[in-house]
Amino acid sequence: MSEEIKKPNVIPSRRNFLKGAAALGTGAAVLAGINDGARADGDPIPVGQAAPLTDFAAADGVEFKNGLTLACEEINALGGILGRPLEPYFEDTKQMGDPTNVQAAQRLIDRHSVHALINGYNIGSGAAIQDPVADAGIIYVHYDTTIGHNNLIKSNPDRYFGSFQGDPAEYWYGPGFLKFLQQLEENGQFKRSNNKMAVILSAGVYAANIANAIKEKGAEYGWEISLFETVNVPISEWGPTLAKIRQDPPAVIAVTHFLPADLAQFMVQFVPNPTQSLVYMQYGPSIPAFRDIAKEASVGVLYATVVGALQDEIGSAFEKRYKAKFGENAGHNSGAQPYDGAYVWATAAALAGGTGEPGNEEQNRKVAARMRSLIYRGVTGTTRFMADEQAAYSYPTQVNDSSLGMPHQFLQIQDQTKSGGLIAPAPYGTQGFKLPPWIKA
Length: 441
Description:
Blueprint: H1 14-24, H2 26-34, E1 45-51, H3 58-77, E2 86-92, H4 98-112, E3 116-118, H5 130-136, E4 139-142, H6 147-155, E5 163-165, H7 173-186, E6 196-202, H8 205-217, E7 224-231, H9 239-247, E8 252-255, H10 260-270, E9 278-282, H11 288-294, E10 302-305, H12 313-326, H13 332-352, H14 361-373, E11 376-378, E12 381-383, E13 394-395, E14 406-407, E15 409-412, E16 421-424
Parallel strand pairs: 1-2, 1-3, 3-4, 4-5, 6-7, 6-8, 8-9, 9-10, 13-14
Antiparallel strand pairs: 10-15, 11-12, 15-16
Family: Belongs to the leucine-binding protein family.
Keywords: Amino-acid transport, Signal, Transport
Pfam family, one: Peripla_BP_6
C-alpha cells in the first residue's frame, strides 16, 4: 500500500525553496534549483522498497521504510522531480533470502510499475534483485554492503547499468578495522598486551567476508589470529566461545556477526569475567536494541559502520527531523541509508530530465549516467560511485580525500543511555577514544 503524499498548499518562493534545500543537503539544493517555484502536483512517480518489515530484521526494515518515506515527503515539498511527486510502495521481504527478495521486487515492478527501487539491506547474495531490475530497465539503489554486487556489475556492466550499491562493500570493514587499530596504537591511545586477535563470525556470506578480510590482512599489521570461530545464529548462549577466549586471552576480540540481540548477550556474558581485550562488534551496537539489552555491559564497546548518519551539522539536523517524525527511539542510522539513496536517485533524475517507467530503458540509462558522475554530500557523508562497480568509495581506506568517499565510521559507546560517539575517521570525529572499563590501564 502506498504512503499518503501530502502536497504543499502554496507555491514556495525561491528564497524559501533554497533555505529548505540548504538545511537538507546538496542534493536538495540541486532539486530546488531545478524545480524553483514548481509544485509537486504532476503525475505521481511510483518508487518501491523491498524491506524486512517483519521477522528477525524488522528493527532495521521499519527504519528503511521510514527513511524512504521521509525522503519522499521532503523531495515532494521541494517540488518533487521536475514537478512530479514521489509515491512510495513497500513489500515485505520477511526472512529475506534471494527468492523472497526477488519476489518482493517483482511485485513492486509488476503491480506498481515503480521507476526505482530504493532499499536498505536484504540478507542474501546481494546479486539477485539486480536481474528483475535489469529486465525492467529501471534504477535500483541498495545498501546490501556486499562484494557480490561489485563482482556482478563488473561481469556485465551494460546489463546491470541501473543497479547501484549506495555504500562500500563489506570487504572494506576488514582492512579498515586493522588500519583503525594501527592509528589508535600510533596515537598512544591503545597498547596491545599481545599480538593475538580472536575473530568470531556467523555462517553468512556477509560476516564471513569481513572476518576473512581481517584474517587475510592481519599479519600485515602484526596480528596473529589466535581464534577463528564460526557460531550458529541466532545465539543467546556464548559460554563455549567465551571459554576459548578466556583460555587464551587476546588483545582484541572482533565479532563480525551483526544481529544486535545476539551481540548484546555476548557482552552481558563477557563483562562479569572479562579478558583484557578491546571488543569490536560489527554494526549491531548501532541499533538501540543493543544498549537496551546489554545496558551497562555495552559501555566501552567499539563498533563500526561503512554507512550511517554523521554527527555533524547535516547528520544532526537529519536526526532531529527523523526523531521528530518517528519518535525518540527511532533508528535514524538505518533510516539514513534509503534516505540518502532516494536523494541521489532523485537528484540524478532531475539532472537527466526525469525518471523512466519499466521498459523505458533509454531514459533510465540517462539517469544512471548522472548517478555515476554525481558527487553527493548527504547525511551519511559523500556518495561517489566507482565507475566499474557502481558501489560507493570508502574513506579513508580506499580513498584518502574525505570529500570523495563515504566515511568508514568507528564509534564507541561511552554512556549506555546514548548512541555511540564518533571517534574516527578525521575530520568527522566528535569525541575521543576511551579504554573500556574492564581493561586495567
